[in-house]
Amino acid sequence: MASLEEIRHRLQAAGQAHLLRFWAELDTAQRASLLGELAVLDAELLKEHCRSAAEAYAREISAPQRLDQRLQPVPSEFLGSVGRSDKETLARWEEEGFSQISQNKVAVLLLAGGQGTRLGVTYPKGMYDVGLPSGKTLYEIQAQRIRKVEQLAGKKYATKVTVPWYIMTSEFTLGPTERFFIEHNYFNLDKRNVVMFEQRMLPAVTFDGKAILEQKGKLALAPDGNGGLYRALAENKILEDMERRGIHYIHVYCVDNILVKLADPVFIGFCVCKGADCGAKVVEKAYPEEPVGVVCQVDGVYQVVEYSEISPEMVHKRGPDGLLTYNAGNICNHFFTLNFLKTVAHTLEPQMKQHVAIKKVPFINEEGNLVKPATPNGIKMEKFVFDVFQFSKNFVVFEVLREEEFSPLKNADTAEKDTPTTTRRALLSQHYRWALRAGASFRDAAGFRIPDKPGLSETEDLPAVCEISPLVTYFGENLELYLKGKDIPSTFILDEDQVNALGKA
Ligand SMILES: CC(=O)N[C@H]1[C@@H](OP(=O)(O)OP(=O)(O)OC[C@H]2O[C@@H](n3ccc(=O)[nH]c3=O)[C@H](O)[C@@H]2O)O[C@H](CO)[C@@H](O)[C@@H]1O
């Protein structure tokens, strides 16, 4: 590791000498830890990072960008849709997806480096239990969906199937995520097929371009955004690991959507059939102002545009069919070929846009006291995972049904939307619909039949509580085998044990 003198010299050259201001007060362990943090920061890059953060901030406050004149919606020939496709087409895409999965060519990649600040927990979001009857966490649900899709593909093609699970973590989430997986025996997945790696951390910077100390011997660091993925894939040799396993297609997704279909055969099949190198799953926006990014074209190039970047007129604009013109809500579910990821990670990544987040960053002041600022004082720079759409040679968009595939956990229960309550309800109402469709009927505690309500509105109470394990069904298939003509109590958990019991009844 570089010596103190070398590092002091480098920091001076980068205009960041203040980072060693409290050196004399640090004990041996604190000194070693600070030197460790500073040693991995290249001085030139640090200088450049601080300069561009300050510049980007100045641009942001002087002229917020409006993209109105440069926007175009996704052309219909590049837009596939579950809702608007016939059964045969959907079956063909699904078959293609299963075929690729059965050849062990498909991997899933979870973005799990975020801090879950809005949810207000100190541990990784994937460890959250939204209060399902089974008590399953998001990680457990995801692991079981992987096992199920492997089983389904394996059964169809009479072969042994592996869908490797790559998990991108950050300094905040790696340790607890690893421990959680070990404690839960990797949810019965083969641990050799669960590959965790870490994204980089970047210093938070003041408005005049100085890296911030959050303790006398510690920089304020934050993960470099979910677009840090591409750098992390190269730095951690993940692309080589994929290559070695014969992976061709990667389904990348974010941690908090309780309805996520891992390695979704329909989505994979659609993208493969279209010859896409890059694809995005979207849902119709629920209402014009919904705070989701929208997939569209800017100056002819695909990108996700945030709600704040377009005017209210554009947000509300509708086509002749009455639908919102900019309607393709990004749900952070992406398809990439391995070749595309290689090109991005090895060549194009430096061209990705840097986004500026202006935050309240606790800091150590001149006198050495910790200050928790009441107003924003710092800049965090992030890259976004979708900012690679511009590099795609054949980009496609796939629209799915929100009630079946998208219910994210973003906020604590004090908020109205995207909370533990709304995600739990979304999953349980899906399972209730599946159970009715399979021919089950529900009884209350006194044994009375509960009337069926197949078309529930978002606010109505669920008539019955039914949770179905992903190990029993991936997306509602084959449930007639266990539920047709059955009277089941509310609350009911259909898991593998229950399936055996019903089978024997
Ligand atoms: C940049 C991005 O993708 N934005 C999308 C994200 O917004 P949103 O603002 O919800 O994005 P989050 O900050 O929650 O991050 C999404 C995912 O990226 C992970 N993460 C985040 C930061 C980081 O440094 N490392 C990391 O791995 C998180 O753990 C999470 O799994 O999901 C919404 C739908 O739910 C979409 O409408 C947004 O367009």
UniProtKB/TrEMBL annotation:
One of its GO terms (molecular function) is UDP-N-acetylglucosamine diphosphorylase activity. It comes from the Eukaryota. PANTHER family: UDP- GLUCOSE PYROPHOSPHORYLASE, UDP-N-ACETYLHEXOSAMINE PYROPHOSPHORYLASE-LIKE PROTEIN 1. Pfam families: UDPGP. Gene3D superfamilies: 2.10.10.100, Spore Coat Polysaccharide Biosynthesis Protein SpsA, Chain A. InterPro entries: Nucleotide-diphossugar_trans, UDP-sugar_pyrophosphorylase, UDPGP_fam. Belongs to the UDPGP type 1 family. The gene is UAP1L1. This is UDP-N-acetylhexosamine pyrophosphorylase-like protein 1. One of its GO terms (biological process) is UDP-N-acetylglucosamine biosynthetic process. Keywords: Nucleotidyltransferase, Transferase.
